[in-house]
Write a structure and sequence with these properties.
With about 180 residues, the chain is α+β, with helices and mostly antiparallel strands. The chain has helices at about 1-20, 60-70, 90-100, 120-140, 165-170, and strands spanning about 75, 105-110, 145-150, 170-175. The protein is built from five helices and four strands. Strand 2 (about 105-110), helix 4 (about 120-140) and strand 3 (about 145-150) form a beta-alpha-beta unit. It starts with a helix and ends with a strand.
Length: about 180
């Protein structure tokens, strides 16, 4: 267990340093016109002020909050739906944002790696998205702001049948929408 956690941390760190070359999991920056790639096509990720979801008026919190809100993926251990503790702060930031912006809506997209039957993986993806939903609601988000969907193994983030691909496919994606 500890060995796989260390391995996952190393893999994720290497991907972060490499720039991940593929799909970005950041939100568009509406102030500069630059586009990220983590939001669904046509999704509106702007907050109440129209600039972007991470714009907070709290003293000294803007930079740290924006960094947390730019994180849109929660990764899971093999065959687990319990949210790893490393995502608590990130999910708390999203929950606070949703609580202070009642018009904001998100979709939680649950995914699994290819191991297991199609039906099992759909159920696992649903359990994962529901686990993230519960945490966001504990942080102040309302049920009306949150929807969940499970894609199981049908929309992999990484192709391949190795641990690196599996670890990237065991996830919940947070998609801000209108």
């Amino acid at each position: 267990m500890v060995r796989s956690s260390v391995m996952l941390t190393c893999i994720l760190g290497a991907l972060a340093l490499a720039g991940c070359g593929g799909r970005s999991n950041t939100l568009p920056d509406y102030e500069s016109g630059a586009e990220g790639g983590g939001a669904a096509e046509g999704a509106d990720t702007r907050g109440a002020d129209g600039r972007g979801i991470g714009v907070f008026e709290e003293e000294g919190a803007a930079g740290g909050q924006q960094a947390l809100l730019d994180q849109l993926i929660v990764y899971f251990e093999y065959d687990q739906s319990e949210v790893p503790a490393q995502y608590n702060e990130m999910l708390a930031a999203h929950g606070r944002y949703l609580s202070s912006n009642p018009e904001a809506r998100i979709r939680l997209e649950g995914h699994a790696d290819e191991r297991g039957s199609r039906e099992y993986n759909i159920g696992l993806g649903e359990r994962r998205s529901q686990a993230v939903r519960r945490i966001l609601m504990l942080q102040g988000a309302s049920a009306e702001q949150l929807s969940t969907v499970s894609y199981g193994e049908e929309r992999p983030a990484a192709l391949g049948s190795d641990e690196e691909a599996y670890s990237l496919n065991r996830r919940v994606e947070i998609v801000y929408r209108q």
